[in-house]
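Posting this for the archive.
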Amino acid sequence: MKKTLLAVTMTSAVLAMPSYADEPATVPNTEFAQTVAGMVKELKSASAGERNIAKQLEQYSKFQFSPELRPKLKEYFGAEQPFPLERVPSVAKGQINYVGKLAPYNHSLEDGTNFAWTELVANIATDKAGRALNIDATWPSLIVTAKKSVVSVLDMTMNSRQLRGADNVAYGTANFKIGVTTIRSAPDGESESKEVGRIEDIEARSEVTRRGKMAEIAYRSSIKSIVVGGEQIDRTNFAFRLTNIPSKSLADLDKTLRAQQDSKLDQKAQQEVMLKSLADFGKRAAVAGATLVIDDISTSYRGNVAAIKGRIGFQKVKEADFSDMATLAKKLVARFEVRVPVALVRDVSRGFAAKSVDPAAPDAAKQIDAGADAAVSMVVGKAVSGGFAVVEQNELRSTIEIKDGKLVVNGKVIDIAAPLKALSGKIAEQKAKAEAEPEPEQQKP
Protein backbone atom coordinates (compact mmCIF):
# COMPACT_ATOMS: atom_id res chain seq x y z
CA MET A 1 0.00 0.00 0.00
CA LYS A 2 2.61 2.55 1.04
CA LYS A 3 4.87 1.58 -1.86
CA THR A 4 2.04 2.06 -4.33
CA LEU A 5 1.09 5.46 -2.91
CA LEU A 6 4.73 6.50 -3.17
CA ALA A 7 5.07 5.19 -6.68
CA VAL A 8 2.13 6.89 -8.29
CA THR A 9 3.00 10.29 -6.83
CA MET A 10 6.75 10.05 -7.23
CA THR A 11 7.10 11.98 -10.45
CA SER A 12 5.13 14.94 -9.10
CA ALA A 13 6.62 14.88 -5.63
CA VAL A 14 10.16 14.79 -6.98
CA LEU A 15 9.75 18.35 -8.22
CA ALA A 16 9.12 19.54 -4.67
CA MET A 17 11.83 17.43 -3.06
CA PRO A 18 15.31 18.76 -2.27
CA SER A 19 17.73 17.50 -4.89
CA TYR A 20 19.66 15.55 -2.26
CA ALA A 21 16.63 13.35 -1.45
CA ASP A 22 17.79 10.24 -3.24
CA GLU A 23 16.31 6.76 -3.61
CA PRO A 24 16.72 4.34 -0.68
CA ALA A 25 20.15 2.79 -0.20
CA THR A 26 18.55 -0.65 -0.45
CA VAL A 27 15.66 -1.30 -2.83
CA PRO A 28 13.40 -4.37 -2.41
CA ASN A 29 14.18 -6.98 -5.01
CA THR A 30 10.82 -6.84 -6.79
CA GLU A 31 10.16 -5.72 -10.35
CA PHE A 32 7.80 -2.99 -9.21
CA ALA A 33 10.23 -1.58 -6.60
CA GLN A 34 13.10 -1.67 -9.06
CA THR A 35 10.96 0.19 -11.61
CA VAL A 36 10.18 2.94 -9.10
CA ALA A 37 13.84 3.17 -8.09
CA GLY A 38 14.86 3.43 -11.75
CA MET A 39 12.31 6.18 -12.35
CA VAL A 40 13.58 8.23 -9.40
CA LYS A 41 17.20 7.72 -10.43
CA GLU A 42 16.60 8.92 -14.00
CA LEU A 43 14.66 11.97 -12.81
CA LYS A 44 17.41 12.90 -10.38
CA SER A 45 20.10 12.50 -13.02
CA ALA A 46 18.18 14.74 -15.41
CA SER A 47 18.09 17.64 -12.95
CA ALA A 48 21.40 17.08 -11.12
CA GLY A 49 23.07 20.34 -10.17
CA GLU A 50 20.19 22.52 -11.40
CA ARG A 51 18.73 24.76 -8.66
CA ASN A 52 16.59 27.02 -10.82
CA ILE A 53 13.00 25.73 -10.48
CA ALA A 54 11.91 27.26 -13.79
CA LYS A 55 14.68 25.39 -15.62
CA GLN A 56 13.89 22.17 -13.72
CA LEU A 57 10.25 22.33 -14.79
CA GLU A 58 11.20 23.07 -18.39
CA GLN A 59 13.66 20.17 -18.42
CA TYR A 60 11.08 17.82 -16.94
CA SER A 61 8.39 18.87 -19.44
CA LYS A 62 10.74 17.70 -22.23
CA PHE A 63 12.18 14.70 -20.36
CA GLN A 64 11.71 11.14 -21.62
CA PHE A 65 12.49 8.01 -19.62
CA SER A 66 14.96 5.51 -21.05
CA PRO A 67 13.76 2.90 -23.58
CA GLU A 68 14.57 0.18 -21.03
CA LEU A 69 12.26 1.69 -18.41
CA ARG A 70 9.31 2.76 -20.56
CA PRO A 71 7.67 -0.70 -20.96
CA LYS A 72 7.59 -1.18 -17.19
CA LEU A 73 6.18 2.30 -16.61
CA LYS A 74 3.51 1.51 -19.19
CA GLU A 75 2.69 -1.71 -17.34
CA TYR A 76 2.49 -0.26 -13.84
CA PHE A 77 1.15 3.25 -14.54
CA GLY A 78 -0.55 2.96 -17.90
CA ALA A 79 1.82 5.36 -19.65
CA GLU A 80 5.48 5.54 -20.63
CA GLN A 81 5.50 9.06 -19.20
CA PRO A 82 3.33 8.62 -16.07
CA PHE A 83 3.20 12.26 -15.02
CA PRO A 84 3.64 14.56 -18.04
CA LEU A 85 3.98 18.30 -17.44
CA GLU A 86 2.35 20.83 -19.74
CA ARG A 87 3.06 24.53 -19.61
CA VAL A 88 -0.11 26.62 -19.42
CA PRO A 89 -0.83 30.38 -19.62
CA SER A 90 0.28 32.33 -16.56
CA VAL A 91 -2.41 33.21 -14.03
CA ALA A 92 -0.39 36.04 -12.49
CA LYS A 93 2.24 38.47 -13.76
CA GLY A 94 5.77 37.11 -13.53
CA GLN A 95 4.55 33.54 -12.93
CA ILE A 96 5.39 30.40 -14.90
CA ASN A 97 2.66 27.77 -14.70
CA TYR A 98 2.47 24.05 -15.44
CA VAL A 99 -0.16 21.34 -15.03
CA GLY A 100 0.77 17.74 -14.37
CA LYS A 101 -1.65 14.81 -14.49
CA LEU A 102 -1.52 11.15 -13.58
CA ALA A 103 -4.20 9.42 -15.67
CA PRO A 104 -6.74 7.04 -14.08
CA TYR A 105 -5.59 3.43 -14.21
CA ASN A 106 -6.28 -0.13 -13.08
CA HIS A 107 -3.45 -2.60 -12.68
CA SER A 108 -3.54 -6.18 -11.40
CA LEU A 109 -0.56 -8.14 -10.14
CA GLU A 110 -0.02 -11.84 -10.74
CA ASP A 111 -1.35 -12.67 -7.27
CA GLY A 112 -4.68 -10.98 -8.06
CA THR A 113 -4.08 -7.75 -6.14
CA ASN A 114 -5.61 -4.82 -8.01
CA PHE A 115 -4.61 -1.15 -7.86
CA ALA A 116 -7.07 1.45 -9.12
CA TRP A 117 -6.86 5.21 -8.93
CA THR A 118 -8.58 8.26 -10.30
CA GLU A 119 -6.86 11.18 -11.99
CA LEU A 120 -4.26 13.07 -9.97
CA VAL A 121 -3.91 16.73 -10.96
CA ALA A 122 -1.14 19.09 -9.82
CA ASN A 123 -0.96 22.80 -10.58
CA ILE A 124 2.65 23.95 -10.32
CA ALA A 125 3.94 27.51 -10.43
CA THR A 126 7.28 29.26 -10.13
CA ASP A 127 8.67 32.73 -10.84
CA LYS A 128 11.02 33.83 -13.61
CA ALA A 129 13.97 33.72 -11.19
CA GLY A 130 13.17 30.07 -10.48
CA ARG A 131 13.29 30.53 -6.70
CA ALA A 132 9.62 29.98 -5.84
CA LEU A 133 7.71 26.71 -6.01
CA ASN A 134 3.95 26.51 -5.43
CA ILE A 135 2.09 23.21 -5.80
CA ASP A 136 -1.63 22.47 -5.44
CA ALA A 137 -2.51 18.82 -6.01
CA THR A 138 -5.69 16.75 -5.68
CA TRP A 139 -6.18 13.01 -5.89
CA PRO A 140 -9.75 11.76 -5.33
CA SER A 141 -9.07 8.08 -4.70
CA LEU A 142 -6.67 5.16 -4.56
CA ILE A 143 -8.12 1.68 -3.98
CA VAL A 144 -6.15 -1.52 -3.40
CA THR A 145 -8.14 -4.76 -3.64
CA ALA A 146 -6.60 -8.01 -2.46
CA LYS A 147 -8.14 -11.47 -2.17
CA LYS A 148 -9.68 -10.91 1.26
CA SER A 149 -9.34 -7.19 1.87
CA VAL A 150 -9.86 -3.75 0.36
CA VAL A 151 -8.01 -0.56 1.33
CA SER A 152 -9.33 2.75 0.05
CA VAL A 153 -7.74 6.18 0.44
CA LEU A 154 -10.04 9.06 -0.51
CA ASP A 155 -9.93 12.83 -0.95
CA MET A 156 -6.19 13.48 -0.90
CA THR A 157 -4.88 17.02 -1.29
CA MET A 158 -1.47 18.64 -1.05
CA ASN A 159 -0.37 22.24 -1.26
CA SER A 160 3.11 23.64 -0.85
CA ARG A 161 4.52 27.16 -0.82
CA GLN A 162 8.30 27.43 -0.94
CA LEU A 163 10.75 30.24 -1.65
CA ARG A 164 14.50 29.71 -1.84
CA GLY A 165 16.30 32.32 0.23
CA ALA A 166 19.61 34.04 -0.43
CA ASP A 167 21.26 31.18 1.51
CA ASN A 168 19.74 28.69 -1.02
CA VAL A 169 17.55 27.06 1.64
CA ALA A 170 13.90 26.52 0.67
CA TYR A 171 11.67 28.19 3.28
CA GLY A 172 7.92 27.77 3.34
CA THR A 173 5.06 25.43 4.21
CA ALA A 174 3.57 22.16 3.00
CA ASN A 175 0.13 20.76 3.86
CA PHE A 176 -1.16 17.26 3.20
CA LYS A 177 -4.67 15.92 3.84
CA ILE A 178 -6.50 12.62 3.47
CA GLY A 179 -10.27 12.62 3.85
CA VAL A 180 -10.76 9.02 4.88
CA THR A 181 -8.84 5.74 4.82
CA THR A 182 -10.94 2.60 5.07
CA ILE A 183 -9.92 -1.03 5.52
CA ARG A 184 -12.43 -3.75 4.70
CA SER A 185 -11.94 -7.48 5.11
CA ALA A 186 -13.87 -10.60 4.13
CA PRO A 187 -13.49 -13.35 6.78
CA ASP A 188 -13.14 -16.95 5.62
CA GLY A 189 -16.46 -18.34 4.46
CA GLU A 190 -18.00 -14.92 3.77
CA SER A 191 -18.34 -13.41 0.31
CA GLU A 192 -18.90 -9.77 1.32
CA SER A 193 -16.29 -7.62 3.03
CA LYS A 194 -16.95 -5.71 6.24
CA GLU A 195 -15.32 -2.55 7.51
CA VAL A 196 -12.67 -3.35 10.11
CA GLY A 197 -10.92 0.02 10.36
CA ARG A 198 -11.40 3.66 9.43
CA ILE A 199 -9.21 6.75 9.80
CA GLU A 200 -10.88 10.09 9.14
CA ASP A 201 -9.44 13.52 8.34
CA ILE A 202 -5.67 13.08 8.44
CA GLU A 203 -3.87 16.42 8.24
CA ALA A 204 -0.14 17.16 8.30
CA ARG A 205 1.71 20.45 8.04
CA SER A 206 5.44 21.16 7.92
CA GLU A 207 7.05 24.59 7.99
CA VAL A 208 10.57 25.99 7.70
CA THR A 209 10.94 29.67 8.57
CA ARG A 210 13.83 32.07 9.04
CA ARG A 211 13.98 34.75 11.71
CA GLY A 212 17.11 36.83 11.27
CA LYS A 213 20.12 34.62 11.85
CA MET A 214 17.99 31.81 13.24
CA ALA A 215 15.60 29.32 11.65
CA GLU A 216 12.77 27.15 12.90
CA ILE A 217 11.38 23.83 11.71
CA ALA A 218 7.82 22.98 12.75
CA TYR A 219 5.61 19.95 12.21
CA ARG A 220 1.99 19.36 13.11
CA SER A 221 -0.37 16.49 12.36
CA SER A 222 -3.85 15.49 13.47
CA ILE A 223 -6.40 12.73 12.97
CA LYS A 224 -10.09 13.39 13.59
CA SER A 225 -10.92 9.80 14.48
CA ILE A 226 -9.65 6.23 14.35
CA VAL A 227 -12.22 3.43 14.45
CA VAL A 228 -11.03 -0.16 14.99
CA GLY A 229 -13.07 -3.10 16.24
CA GLY A 230 -16.02 -0.94 17.16
CA GLU A 231 -13.91 1.37 19.34
CA GLN A 232 -13.31 4.99 18.36
CA ILE A 233 -10.36 7.17 19.30
CA ASP A 234 -11.18 10.82 18.76
CA ARG A 235 -8.88 13.68 17.81
CA THR A 236 -5.18 12.77 17.98
CA ASN A 237 -2.59 15.55 17.73
CA PHE A 238 1.17 15.62 17.35
CA ALA A 239 2.98 18.96 17.13
CA PHE A 240 6.59 20.00 17.72
CA ARG A 241 9.06 22.74 16.79
CA LEU A 242 12.83 22.81 16.58
CA THR A 243 13.71 26.40 17.44
CA ASN A 244 16.89 28.51 17.55
CA ILE A 245 18.60 26.75 14.65
CA PRO A 246 21.45 28.83 13.19
CA SER A 247 20.33 29.54 9.62
CA LYS A 248 23.97 29.18 8.53
CA SER A 249 24.00 25.60 9.86
CA LEU A 250 20.86 24.86 7.86
CA ALA A 251 22.44 26.33 4.72
CA ASP A 252 25.65 24.36 5.28
CA LEU A 253 23.64 21.15 5.69
CA ASP A 254 21.78 21.83 2.45
CA LYS A 255 25.03 22.47 0.59
CA THR A 256 26.73 19.37 2.03
CA LEU A 257 23.86 17.03 1.19
CA ARG A 258 23.63 18.32 -2.37
CA ALA A 259 27.37 17.84 -2.85
CA GLN A 260 27.02 14.33 -1.46
CA GLN A 261 24.35 13.48 -4.00
CA ASP A 262 26.43 14.81 -6.89
CA SER A 263 29.45 12.76 -5.79
CA LYS A 264 30.41 9.44 -7.35
CA LEU A 265 29.95 7.49 -4.12
CA ASP A 266 27.75 4.41 -4.25
CA GLN A 267 24.36 4.46 -2.52
CA LYS A 268 25.54 2.92 0.75
CA ALA A 269 28.44 5.36 1.04
CA GLN A 270 26.14 8.27 0.22
CA GLN A 271 23.77 7.22 2.97
CA GLU A 272 26.64 7.08 5.46
CA VAL A 273 27.75 10.57 4.46
CA MET A 274 24.17 11.83 4.78
CA LEU A 275 23.74 10.39 8.28
CA LYS A 276 27.05 11.88 9.39
CA SER A 277 26.07 15.28 7.96
CA LEU A 278 22.74 15.16 9.83
CA ALA A 279 24.51 14.19 13.06
CA ASP A 280 27.00 17.06 12.68
CA PHE A 281 24.12 19.45 12.01
CA GLY A 282 22.35 18.24 15.16
CA LYS A 283 25.46 18.84 17.26
CA ARG A 284 25.99 22.35 15.87
CA ALA A 285 22.33 23.20 16.46
CA ALA A 286 22.48 21.94 20.05
CA VAL A 287 25.65 23.89 20.78
CA ALA A 288 23.95 27.02 19.41
CA GLY A 289 21.02 26.54 21.78
CA ALA A 290 18.44 24.78 19.62
CA THR A 291 15.42 23.54 21.57
CA LEU A 292 12.85 20.89 20.72
CA VAL A 293 9.47 22.21 21.84
CA ILE A 294 6.63 19.70 22.11
CA ASP A 295 3.56 21.85 21.70
CA ASP A 296 1.01 19.07 21.81
CA ILE A 297 0.95 15.30 21.90
CA SER A 298 -2.60 14.32 22.82
CA THR A 299 -5.42 11.92 22.15
CA SER A 300 -9.08 11.84 23.10
CA TYR A 301 -11.16 8.78 24.00
CA ARG A 302 -14.84 9.21 24.80
CA GLY A 303 -14.34 12.92 25.32
CA ASN A 304 -11.43 12.58 27.77
CA VAL A 305 -8.06 13.93 26.61
CA ALA A 306 -4.62 12.68 27.67
CA ALA A 307 -1.86 15.13 26.81
CA ILE A 308 1.84 15.85 27.14
CA LYS A 309 3.71 19.11 26.54
CA GLY A 310 7.32 20.06 27.13
CA ARG A 311 10.73 20.97 25.78
CA ILE A 312 14.18 19.43 25.41
CA GLY A 313 17.51 21.23 25.09
CA PHE A 314 21.08 21.41 26.36
CA GLN A 315 22.78 23.80 28.75
CA LYS A 316 26.28 25.05 27.85
CA VAL A 317 26.96 21.97 25.74
CA LYS A 318 30.07 21.62 23.56
CA GLU A 319 30.64 19.37 20.55
CA ALA A 320 33.20 17.36 22.55
CA ASP A 321 30.46 16.47 25.06
CA PHE A 322 28.69 14.31 22.46
CA SER A 323 31.46 11.72 22.71
CA ASP A 324 30.66 11.05 26.37
CA MET A 325 27.06 10.10 27.16
CA ALA A 326 27.49 10.71 30.90
CA THR A 327 28.76 14.26 30.35
CA LEU A 328 26.09 14.93 27.75
CA ALA A 329 23.33 13.71 30.08
CA LYS A 330 24.41 16.18 32.76
CA LYS A 331 23.86 19.04 30.30
CA LEU A 332 20.51 17.80 29.05
CA VAL A 333 17.63 19.97 30.21
CA ALA A 334 14.05 18.79 29.71
CA ARG A 335 10.64 19.37 31.23
CA PHE A 336 7.34 17.66 30.45
CA GLU A 337 3.84 18.09 31.80
CA VAL A 338 1.61 15.02 31.62
CA ARG A 339 -2.15 14.94 32.17
CA VAL A 340 -4.35 11.82 32.09
CA PRO A 341 -8.02 12.01 33.14
CA VAL A 342 -9.01 9.37 35.70
CA ALA A 343 -12.14 8.82 33.59
CA LEU A 344 -9.88 7.86 30.66
CA VAL A 345 -8.08 5.29 32.83
CA ARG A 346 -11.49 3.92 33.81
CA ASP A 347 -12.74 3.71 30.21
CA VAL A 348 -9.64 1.90 29.04
CA SER A 349 -9.77 -0.42 32.06
CA ARG A 350 -13.40 -1.27 31.29
CA GLY A 351 -12.41 -2.21 27.75
CA PHE A 352 -9.77 -4.65 28.98
CA ALA A 353 -12.07 -6.00 31.70
CA ALA A 354 -14.86 -6.64 29.19
CA LYS A 355 -12.57 -8.88 27.13
CA SER A 356 -12.02 -11.20 30.10
CA VAL A 357 -15.71 -11.52 31.07
CA ASP A 358 -18.28 -13.83 29.46
CA PRO A 359 -20.95 -11.45 28.09
CA ALA A 360 -23.57 -14.20 28.62
CA ALA A 361 -22.94 -14.30 32.38
CA PRO A 362 -25.90 -12.91 34.39
CA ASP A 363 -23.61 -10.61 36.35
CA ALA A 364 -21.36 -9.65 33.42
CA ALA A 365 -21.90 -5.91 33.96
CA LYS A 366 -20.98 -6.17 37.64
CA GLN A 367 -17.85 -8.18 36.81
CA ILE A 368 -16.75 -5.57 34.27
CA ASP A 369 -17.37 -2.71 36.72
CA ALA A 370 -15.46 -4.55 39.45
CA GLY A 371 -12.54 -5.25 37.13
CA ALA A 372 -12.41 -1.64 35.97
CA ASP A 373 -12.56 -0.32 39.56
CA ALA A 374 -9.72 -2.63 40.60
CA ALA A 375 -7.56 -1.52 37.66
CA VAL A 376 -8.20 2.18 38.33
CA SER A 377 -7.40 1.76 42.01
CA MET A 378 -4.15 -0.01 41.15
CA VAL A 379 -2.98 2.45 38.46
CA VAL A 380 -3.98 5.64 40.25
CA GLY A 381 -3.06 4.31 43.68
CA LYS A 382 0.45 3.25 42.68
CA ALA A 383 1.11 6.48 40.79
CA VAL A 384 0.02 8.66 43.73
CA SER A 385 1.41 6.55 46.59
CA GLY A 386 4.72 6.18 44.74
CA GLY A 387 4.98 9.94 44.44
CA PHE A 388 4.94 9.89 40.64
CA ALA A 389 1.70 11.84 40.18
CA VAL A 390 -1.05 13.74 41.96
CA VAL A 391 -4.79 13.86 41.33
CA GLU A 392 -6.15 17.33 40.60
CA GLN A 393 -9.54 18.09 39.07
CA ASN A 394 -10.05 14.38 38.36
CA GLU A 395 -6.79 14.17 36.41
CA LEU A 396 -3.55 12.35 37.05
CA ARG A 397 -0.93 15.07 36.69
CA SER A 398 2.81 14.74 36.70
CA THR A 399 5.85 16.85 35.89
CA ILE A 400 8.95 15.15 34.52
CA GLU A 401 12.24 17.06 34.63
CA ILE A 402 15.79 16.23 33.60
CA LYS A 403 18.56 18.52 34.80
CA ASP A 404 22.13 18.15 36.09
CA GLY A 405 22.05 14.45 35.23
CA LYS A 406 19.00 13.80 37.42
CA LEU A 407 15.55 12.53 36.48
CA VAL A 408 12.85 14.03 38.66
CA VAL A 409 9.26 12.80 38.37
CA ASN A 410 6.77 14.96 40.26
CA GLY A 411 9.53 15.94 42.67
CA LYS A 412 10.76 12.35 43.13
CA VAL A 413 14.43 11.83 42.15
CA ILE A 414 15.14 8.64 40.19
CA ASP A 415 18.73 7.38 39.94
CA ILE A 416 19.76 7.00 36.28
CA ALA A 417 23.53 7.09 36.75
CA ALA A 418 24.04 3.33 36.26
CA PRO A 419 22.08 2.97 32.99
CA LEU A 420 23.72 6.12 31.60
CA LYS A 421 27.17 4.76 32.37
CA ALA A 422 26.31 1.48 30.63
CA LEU A 423 24.91 3.32 27.62
CA SER A 424 27.99 5.54 27.39
CA GLY A 425 30.23 2.48 27.36
CA LYS A 426 28.21 0.83 24.62
CA ILE A 427 28.30 3.95 22.44
CA ALA A 428 32.06 4.26 22.90
CA GLU A 429 32.47 0.62 21.88
CA GLN A 430 30.39 1.11 18.72
CA LYS A 431 32.30 4.30 17.85
CA ALA A 432 35.66 2.54 18.18
CA LYS A 433 34.39 -0.26 15.95
CA ALA A 434 33.16 2.21 13.32
CA GLU A 435 36.45 4.14 13.34
CA ALA A 436 38.34 0.89 12.74
CA GLU A 437 36.43 0.29 9.50
CA PRO A 438 37.98 1.65 6.27
CA GLU A 439 36.58 4.84 4.75
CA PRO A 440 34.29 4.38 1.71
CA GLU A 441 36.09 4.86 -1.59
CA GLN A 442 34.73 6.83 -4.51
CA GLN A 443 33.73 4.94 -7.59
CA LYS A 444 35.85 5.57 -10.65
CA PRO A 445 34.19 7.71 -13.33
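The mean pLDDT is 85. Residues 323-436 form one domain.
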